[in-house]
Write a structure and sequence with these properties.
170 residues, alpha+beta, 14% strand, globular
């Protein structure tokens, strides 16, 4: 698949079929996330692959009742590792770079899922402390929950802002 086609096919899917995804697909998604750039190549993040139904149900509650989380066969919880980044970059590493590292890795995972013909959605609305407790990530900061599976819907593309309102040429 060409890169532009990949970008055009990416959608936020909030309905998943009950079909499972293979271990090879999971590994491929994780390997793509591992190739993401990071500040100083510290990879100041952790990824939790959650497929246990009870934990997925707990994530639904932590994410303000977003039921589709438990419909997906797997969710990847991307967590920033502030201490790892702070050791090299101080406060800016702790407060910014670790979050950037986790979000870039999550984006790579989403794009790989699309490449594999799978669906996903970025979930950012959740109680961080509850998510940390569910996955046992006590020194990490959850920044995104990414449910992945076979889509049970095919959402239309959402309108995007015009470049003229995004880009400031100087």
């Amino acid at each position: 698949m060409q890169f532009d086609e990949l970008l055009d096919r990416r959608r936020s899917t909030r309905a998943f079929s009950r079909d499972s995804i293979s271990e090879d697909q999971v590994r491929s998604i994780l390997e793509a996330a591992n190739k993401a750039p990071s500040a100083g190549n510290l990879q100041a993040y952790g990824i939790f692959a959650v497929s246990d139904h009870d934990k997925l149900t707990d994530l639904v509650a932590a994410a303000k009742g977003q039921e589709f989380i438990a419909e997906a066969p797997i969710c990847f919880v991307f967590c920033a590792d502030p201490e790892r980044s702070e050791s090299e970059y101080g406060k800016r590493g702790r407060d910014l770079y670790s979050i950037q590292d986790a979000t870039i890795a999550a984006t790579f995972a989403i794009l790989k899922a699309v490449d594999l013909g799978l669906a996903s959605v970025w979930v950012g609305s959740f109680d961080e402390e509850r998510v940390s407790n569910i996955i046992g990530a006590y020194k990490l900061r959850p920044v995104a929950i990414i449910p992945v599976g076979h889509g049970a819907e095919n959402p239309e593309a959402k309108p995007r802002r015009k470049l003229s309102s995004l880009v400031h040429e100087m």
